[in-house]
């Protein structure tokens, strides 16, 4: 829903940021049944980075992070992804004022088209509901949900950017 465009615009407006893109894990012969372990370690490493990043250090953007695990693990990976919430607690996410958690949503499903990247495009609306529940459960203090729809059209990239970086 425009994440790459938002990231590009953040960098144009605020300067360079290191971008870490979490993509869906691919099943492999190497991982076998250890997909959960791989994901856990991956998110643990991400939280370790957040523990050590301060506003004066290199700005960092996670393109997709731990909340996707809550939504996708139970639907498509065969295990529960709620383990990410204890990771938030362990890493004191409730004190990470330097982190902004953004969830992009849409109120107009007629605008959404299948980009071929979805697990199951027919489940997008239900997935969004699960993302909102996970987002609301997250203890990060600085967070916002942004509806990228503006009635029957998309919000402009500039309007979305202002909502993302606004106070």
Fraction of residues in helices? 40-55%
Number of helices: 6
Number of domains: 1
For the largest sheet, list the strands in their spatial order.
1-2
**Euclidean distance between termini CA atoms:** 22 Å
Element order: H for helix, E for strand: HEHEHHEHEEEH
Report the strand count. 6
Radius of gyration from the alpha-carbon trace, in angstroms: 16 Å
- Average pLDDT confidence is 86
| Strand percentage | 5-15%
**Main sheet: strands, sense, barrel:** 2 strands, parallel
Form type: globular
Spell out the blueprint of helices and strands:
Elements lengths: L2 H12 L3 E4 L13 H17 L8 E4 L3 H11 L6 H7 L10 E5 L18 H14 L5 E5 L1 E2 L2 E2 L2 H9 L2
Parallel strand pairs: 1-2, 3-4
Antiparallel strand pairs: 5-6
């Amino acid at each position: 829903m425009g994440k790459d465009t938002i990231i590009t615009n953040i960098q144009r407006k605020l300067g360079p940021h290191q971008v870490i893109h979490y993509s869906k894990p691919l099943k492999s012969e190497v991982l076998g049944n250890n997909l959960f372990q791989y994901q856990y370690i991956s998110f643990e490493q991400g939280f370790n980075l957040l523990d050590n990043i301060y506003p004066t250090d290199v700005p960092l953007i996670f393109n997709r992070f731990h909340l996707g695990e809550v939504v996708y693990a139970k639907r498509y990976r065969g295990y529960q992804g709620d383990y990410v919430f204890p990771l938030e607690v362990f890493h004191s996410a409730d004190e990470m004022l330097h982190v902004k958690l953004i969830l992009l949503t849409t109120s107009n499903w007629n605008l959404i088209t299948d980009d071929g990247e979805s697990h199951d495009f027919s489940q997008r609306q239900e997935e969004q509901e699960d993302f909102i529940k996970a987002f609301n459960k997250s203890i990060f203090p600085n967070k916002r949900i942004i509806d990228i729809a503006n009635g029957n059209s998309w919000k402009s990239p500039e309007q979305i950017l202002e909502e993302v970086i606004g106070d």
